[in-house]
Amino acid sequence: QQSLAPDTIPYDIRVYWMRRANTALAELASPCPFGAFGSVVVNHTDTSSDPRGKLVCMSVNQNMQKGNPTLHGEISAINNCSEILTDPDGDYRLSTSESLKAFSKLSLYTNAEPCPMCASAIRWSGFAECIFGTSIETLVEKGWGQISIYSDEVFEESTKLPSITRLIRNVLANETDPFFSWQFNPQSSC
User: Which residue of 41, 57, 125, 157 has the fewest C-beta atoms within 10 A of its own C-beta?
Assistant: First the structure.
C-alpha cells in the first residue's frame, strides 16, 4: 500500500480555491443554478504567477444544459481539463498520455461531496487530491436525491489503482451548504 505525503497546503489556500469553485457557478451558469455543483482543478505545484497555485480548469454541473446525466460538476471539470491540457494551441499542449499523467499533480475542489460516479472518476483520473465542502449527508437532509455511497468508501475500495488520492472533507461547508438549500426549501434564499 502506498501512503500519502503530509498535507502541506495551508487552510487559507484551501478556502480560496473552494470559494473559487463556488464562484464558478455564477461565471459559467447563473448565480442560482438548480444543481449548484461547481468544481475547479488546481495545480498547487505551479506557483509561478500566484503563490496559491494555478487554476487549470473549472466547470459546473451541466446535465440540464447538455442533456447528459453524467455531466456532474466533477465529470464536466475532468472533461474540460482534458481538452485544455491537450489543446494544440493552448498553454499546455500535452499529448494524451502526458495529459493522463498530469492529473496526478492536480487537486480537484468541488463544493459538494462527489457522488459514487464522480468519486470513481476522480480516482480513475489519478488526482493528487479531492477537496469538498458539503457532505452527501447534508445534501440528503436538504432534499437532494443521492446514492448513499460516500467518497471515502469509493476511495477505500480503489486501493488496487496505481495511484492514491487524498480526500479532504468539509472545507468551508458553512459557505457551500447554502448553495444546496433553496431548491427544496422555499424559506431559503438563493
Answer: 157
